[in-house]
Amino acid sequence: MRIVLLGAPGSGKGTQAQFIENQYHLPKISTGEILRKIANSDSLLNQKIQHFMRNGKLISDEIVIQLVRNRISKSDCKLGFILDGFPRTITQAQMIEQEKIIINYIFEFEIPKEIIFERIQGRRIDLTSGKIYHLKNEKCSINNILSKRTDDNKKTIKKRLIEYEKFTIPLIKYFKKYTKTKNFEYHTIDGSKDINSIRKNIFRILKSNI
Predict the structure, then answer these.
(1) The domain that contains 34 carries what CATH number?
(2) Which residue in 48, 131, 148, 149 is the catalytic one?
(3) 160 given a catalytic annotation
(4) Using one digit for the tens of pLDDT, what is the confidence trace for 103-140?
(5) Residue 120 belongs to some domain of the structure
(6) Which of 3-12, 22-31, 81-90, 112-121 has the lowest average pLDDT?
(7) Per-residue pLDDT for 50 more than 90?
(8) How confident is the model at residue 142 (pLDDT cuts 50, 70, 90)?
(9) Given CB 3.0 to 4.6 Å as the disulfide criterion, which of 85, 108, 110, 132 pairs with 6?
(10) Would you say 71 is a known binding-site residue?
(11) In a domain, 181, yes or no
(12) Nearest of 103, 109, 90 to residue 4 by alpha carbon
């Protein structure tokens, strides 16, 4: 199975990607995670990425396409993969077609902006395990070393949402227009529901087609 997860920052697609990965043993490919790893290195590419991320802007298509192409060429992606947050633009979607990468499912997560702000501003990352917690909804051990991402602030979130509406909303319309001719299933998910309800809904869709 080759799955694409679309949604604004904080819509919950990363959490659901983890559930799908564990259930179906598919590698989760998050462009955000790849970029953050590179951002910790001392390179020219790191400087470019830092500039984009500090200003809440999408990374250029050229950089993202190169990173995704390299990742899906690895052996663990032969039986399928989960693309978390890619493609984000029509150009990136067209790249998938040009590379003849088959996509089976696209899940779009819809969620009100006020919930997005609440989720992201309360989000914390365990520096040891990499697990994401939320201060309001989850409890963690006193041994957890939690950190807030530098771009998880109100100003940057607003910029990221503007970028999302500018580039990804047209992409969603593009996908919906070509759903029948491209032979993939397109499903809209209510991202405001509780995590387990969303997980069960996605699993039900995937299981019905196996």
Answers:
(1) 3.40.50.300
(2) 149
(3) yes
(4) 999 999 998 887 777 776 656 566 555 566 555 555 54
(5) no
(6) 112-121
(7) no
(8) very low
(9) 108
(10) no
(11) yes
(12) 103
Q: Residue 118, class by beta-carbon neighbours within 10 Å (0-12 exposed, 13-18 middle, 19+ buried)?
A: middle
Residue of higher predicted confidence among 151 and 91 = 91
- Does the active-site annotation cover 54? no
Active site residue 124: no
What is the residue whose two structure tokens read 């914390």? 124
Report how many domains make up the chain: 1
Q: Assess if residue 158 is contained within a domain.
A: no
Q: Is 161 annotated as a binding residue?
A: no
In-domain check, residue 138: no
Write out the residue range of the structural domain in which residue 81 sits: 2-112+168-203
Mapping DSSP onto H, E and C, the string for the chain reads CEEEEEECCCCCHHHHHHHHHHHHCCCEEEHHHHHHHHHCCCCHHHHHHHHHHHCCCCCCHHHHHHHHHHHHCCHHHCCCEEEECCCCCHHHHHHHHHCCCCCCEEEEEECCHHHHHHHHHCEEEECCCCCEEECCCCCCCCCCCEECCCCCCHHHHHHHHHHHHHHHHHHHHHHHHCHHHHCCEEEEEECCCCHHHHHHHHHHHHHCCC
Q: Is the dihedral of CA 36, 42, 44, 47 positive or negative?
A: positive
- pLDDT confidence band for 88 (50 / 70 / 90): confident
Long-range contacts of 38-44 (CB under 8 A, 24+ apart): 38/67
